[in-house]
Amino acid sequence: xxxxxxxxxxxxxxxxxxxxxxxxxxxxxxxxxxxxxxxxxxxxxxxxxxxxxxxxxxxxxxxxxxxxxxxxxxxxxxxxxxxxxxxxxxxxxxxxxxxxxxxxxxxxxxxxxxxxxxxxxxxxxxxxxxxxxxxxxxxxxxxxxxxxxxxxxxxxxxxxxxxxxxxxxxxxxxxxxxxxxxxxxxxxxxxxxx
Length: 194
Known about the structure:
Elements: E1 19-24, E2 27-32, E3 36-40, E4 55-61, E5 64-70, H1 71-74, E6 87-93, E7 96-102, E8 104-109, E9 116-117, H2 126-129, E10 131-137, E11 140-145, H3 147-150, H4 152-155, H5 159-168
Parallel strand pairs: 2-11, 5-7
Antiparallel strand pairs: 1-2, 1-8, 3-6, 4-5, 6-7, 9-10, 10-11
């Protein structure tokens, strides 16, 4: 399923469908369709040193370096192997794209105020969970996430600085003449035999 958000609600066929649903573990979550740029299949990721554990790394998507956050790790679950159903929900955060790894995208749907339930106060960790609203949809609870809170680790990530740090920690490339760069050149005319 590919959902592309143009930023103009008038282009959507059904304006009552305002949430994109997805699974993380066995729990149903959703995000406002107005915060979703698109839904894509996972791409190769470059791991970044010193990044928060929930940030898998970054990817080059449509010419933009996009941080990727694993929602399983963000919500305190164990990481799991990628499957055919694994998707990235690319959301907008402070004018930049952030990819949220989800186990599966379920549907685009709408809700009414009659479906809304009170957000439970679960105590410590509420800021990490970032639950903005709760709805009963199809007889099941759906937790609408607050993108600003859930994707907060990407907000503090200076992608350019972290990428430069990653490059500085790589070993230097081999010299085209052989040997390693900055190594002293062998002196001519002197034998190295013992």
